[in-house]
Amino acid sequence: MTTTHEPKRVRTLHLQRFKDEGRPFTMLTSYDALTARVFDRAGVDTLLIGDSIGNNVLGYPNTLRVSLQQIADATAAVSGAVERALVIADMPFGSYEASDEQAVNSAVKLMKAGAHAVKLEGGQRIRTRIAAIVDAGIPVVGHLGFTPQSEQRLGGFRIQGRDEQSVAELTADALAVQEAGAIAVVLEMVAGEAAREITAQLRIPTIGIGAGNGTDGQVLVWTDFAGLNTQGVPRFVKQYADVAGVLTQAAEAYITDVRDRAFPDEAHTY
Ligand code: KIV
């Protein structure tokens, strides 16, 4: 099914409209103004300033060290560059664990930085956090399945929703997130069948990453999908480009030109 009307500016209400109309929507991560502008002009519906900035930009081993200020700075860069996409900022580990009040204060900081919505990981465990942020007038996206901030508790990268108990827990979490007032929920590394079932049960849209094609939207980490990440990517990632290859060729050509004194030439000299 296709929509009758493509929004000039994607707003939170459009995600629900996309689900209701059966129009799959897209999300990519972005951590800076230049990629944000490229993805926005290409027509990506939503951009996520993910805490995956930790592994993908800052060189951390995981997402746990990422600070609220780092996400706020990246959010300002991304939101300043986009004209159409909905900008969603991740709440990093440590920015909402202590209390509902801490969660609201952190979400407010990200909205002031330019986010249109915030995302946080967890289900029933954080329902009061979600409700408090929603009560403060801030749209919230949930995140279930494999939640990187809980990697230690989950026992590593594990696909969720493979057995009955896991599906029941995921479904209860998804319903709790919805009831708390979230506008959408990310399902990460969830068995395709389970993700499809949860999507059918929820009124709000689901956004899958490694969760098959039964979700309402899809998200990928940009450095994975564009082939910049040379450290190996999960099986669910389709690589749409070889940015690492292009940059390697460019760097090699530049090195050769400088060594041969072929650059700068007349055309590039004042
Ligand atoms: O931080 C991130 O990139 C994310 C996506 C994997 C959804 O949360």
Describe how the helices and strands are arranged.
Layout: H1 12-21, E1 25-29, H2 33-42, E2 46-49, H3 53-56, H4 68-81, E3 86-90, H5 100-112, E4 117-121, H6 127-135, E5 140-145, H7 151-154, H8 164-179, E6 184-188, H9 192-201, E7 206-209, E8 217-220, H10 222-225, H11 243-259
Parallel strand pairs: 1-2, 1-8, 2-3, 3-4, 4-5, 5-6, 6-7, 7-8
The chain binds 3-methyl-2-oxobutanoic acid.
Describe this structure in words.
With 270 residues, this protein is α/β, with parallel strands linked by helices. Helix content is 41%, strand content 14%. The chain contains eleven helices and eight strands. It has helices spanning 12-21, 33-42, 53-56, 68-81, 100-112, 127-135, 151-154, 164-179, 192-201, 222-225, 243-259, and strands at residues 25-29, 46-49, 86-90, 117-121, 140-145, 184-188, 206-209, 217-220. It has an eight-stranded parallel barrel with strand order 1-2-3-4-5-6-7-8, surrounded by seven helices. Helix 2 (33-42) packs across helix 4 (68-81), helix 4 (68-81) packs parallel to helix 5 (100-112) and helix 5 crosses helix 6 (127-135). The longest helix has 17 residues, at 243-259. The protein is globular, with a radius of gyration of 20 Å. The termini are far apart. The model has no long low-confidence stretch (mean pLDDT 96). The structure holds 3-methyl-2-oxobutanoic acid (KIV). Residues 29, 48, 50-52, 90, 143, 186, 188, 209, 219, 221 line the site of 3-methyl-2-oxobutanoic acid (KIV).
